[in-house]
Amino acid sequence: MKSTTAKFGKTPHQPSLWTRADALKVHADDPTTTQPLVSANFPVLSDEVFIWDTMPLRDIDGNITSVDGWSVIFTLTADRHPNDPQYLDQNGNYDVIRDWNDRHGRAKMYYWFSRTGKDWKLGGRVMAEGVSPTVREWAGTPILLNEQGEVDLYYTAVTPGATIVKVRGRVVTTEHGVSLVGFEKVKPLFEADGKMYQTEAQNAFWGFRDPWPFRDPKDGKLYMLFEGNVAGERGSHKVGKAEIGDVPPGYEDVGNSRFQTACVGIAVARDEDGDDWEMLPPLLTAVGVNDQTERPHFVFQDGKYYLFTISHTFTYADGVTGPDGVYGFVADSLFGPYVPLNGSGLVLGNPSSQPFQTYSHCVMPNGLVTSFIDSVPTDDTGTQIRIGGTEAPTVGIKIKGQQTFVVAEYDYGYIPPMLDVTLK
Ligand code: FRU
Q1: 156 CA: nearest ligand 1 atom
Q2: Is 361 touching ligand 1 by the criterion CB < 6 Å?
Q3: What are all long-range contacts of 403-409, with beta carbons under 8 Å and residues at least 24 apart?
Q4: Does any ligand 1 atom lie closer than 6 A to the CB of residue 210?
Q5: Hey, whose CA ends up nearest to atom 12 of ligand 1?
Q6: CB of 53 closer than 6 A to ligand 1?
Q7: Mind listing the pLDDT tens digit for each residue in 333-345?
Q8: Ligand 1 site, residue 269, Cβ cutoff 6 A
């Protein structure tokens, strides 16, 4: 069995490793890296739909962009079924927890608009039924391309398979609101190759999704981050010295951690339009540490590359743990080496008293972090919960060198624009 480091031996860059030793430094409830408690009294964006992953419209450099003064966000969205007999429990009451847990299977891309960067109004579905080639429309990134309002939406077409795709449309504004037009032709870009990135055939629990295209501020080329797992049959990965890192005596046992093989993938565009991509070896691997590094994204600040990715408690490997939340790594150049922020990687985690309060954090270049509310306990024992499916309060963090600090909290779903584009 080959080790993960050997696998990328002849490639232009070596993936950086998030090691078990790094992860041992993760501590929940450090106030500088913990999201403030979300009250169970939160307002809900819509009684008709659940929303979760939120994707603010931005330019290719990562700046959150409004158009003609309108902010626009895209969200993964699913209908709520309060009156559907399928979602009633034995007592005839709406089983909102089951409805919420089933949402991934019917996720669709919707959009919302706002004059204030909050108080979002529902615009509707981005693509008409039948346009997207698979059942599930999973996360990605909408990019405003120009002053004509053209938008490339990169996202993941899932079930059957998992393909990174894009669809082009246009944003149209009036004084009353925003509509999205076009978005009629979905172009498949690439799938996991089984050599660098694990395929479904290698592991039924594989992850390959969440494209985040960007222009490298230093070399000016077009790249894309995505979530993957390191290629290889499930169970064949080796958690060796490099993956373990410098652990104290008594921490050498890796248990069954070979089943956790997350990585942050990267691809480079062969053309200026981003229609033709070549996958490169991962920027970061977490073999023996964690099985999911989802929705990877960058903040470019002070000449450095701040790489953020979301992860869960339940996806950690044997012998390591941490809260649901966003983790981060920093490097001086795109291909690394990347060092975990705050020593551990943890940037903003849920408090242990409310471990599922929020998820799917997106760190924006202005230091604001948006996420959605998953579930919040409504009693002291944590047995009663209220399902969210709505925007969480935005959190402000300060990024300083290799450290981050929670410094502010804002309104629910506050996603202010960093620049405004006047459409021609
Ligand atoms: C994160 C996530 C994404 C995926 C989507 C599926 O919350 O797991 O990685 O695209 O949700 O619903």
Answers
A1: 10
A2: no
A3: 403/341, 403/342, 404/32, 404/33, 404/328, 404/341, 404/342, 404/347, 404/348, 405/32, 406/31, 406/32, 406/33, 406/34, 406/35, 406/36, 406/348, 407/367, 409/36
A4: yes
A5: 104
A6: yes
A7: 999 999 999 999 9
A8: no
Best probe residue, ligand 1, of 102, 210, 312, 374 (max atoms within 8 Å of C-beta)? 210
Cα-based distances in Å from 375 to 100, 382, 387, 414: 10, 10, 4, 19
Q: Are 223 and 247 in contact (CB under 8 A)?
A: no
Structure tokens at 355: 């471990």
**Which tens digits make up the pLDDT trace of 1-29?**
334 443 676 667 999 999 999 999 999 99
Q: Given the DSSP bridges, would you call strands 121-125 and 368-377 parallel, antiparallel or unpaired?
A: unpaired
C-alpha of residue 103 to centroid of ligand 1, in Å: 10
Q: Is residue 173 classed as helix, strand or coil in its secondary structure?
A: strand
Q: Could you tell me which of 362, 364, 358 has the C-alpha nearest to residue 393?
A: 358
Active-site positions?
53, 294
Residue in this structure with the two tokens 């981003």, named with its chain if needed = 274
Quick one: which atom of ligand 1 is closest to the CA of 140? Answer: 10
- State the Cα–Cα distance between residues 174 and 243, nearest whole angstrom: 54
Vertex 180: Cα angle to 176 and 181 (nearest 5)? 120
The tokens for 357 are 């309060």
> pTM of this prediction?
0.96
Q: How far is the CA of 55 from the centre of ligand 1 (A)?
A: 12
CA pair distance 89, 98, nearest whole angstrom: 9
Long-range contact pairs involving 170-178 (C-beta distance under 8 Å, separation at least 24)? 171/57, 171/67, 171/72, 171/144, 171/423, 173/67, 173/68, 173/69, 173/70, 173/149, 173/423, 177/70, 177/113, 177/121, 177/123, 178/67, 178/70, 178/72, 178/111, 178/113, 178/123
Structure tokens, 290: 């964690």
pLDDT for 58-84, tens place per residue?
Answer: 999 999 999 999 999 999 999 999 999
Domains delineated in the chain: 16-246+254-419 (2.115.10.20)
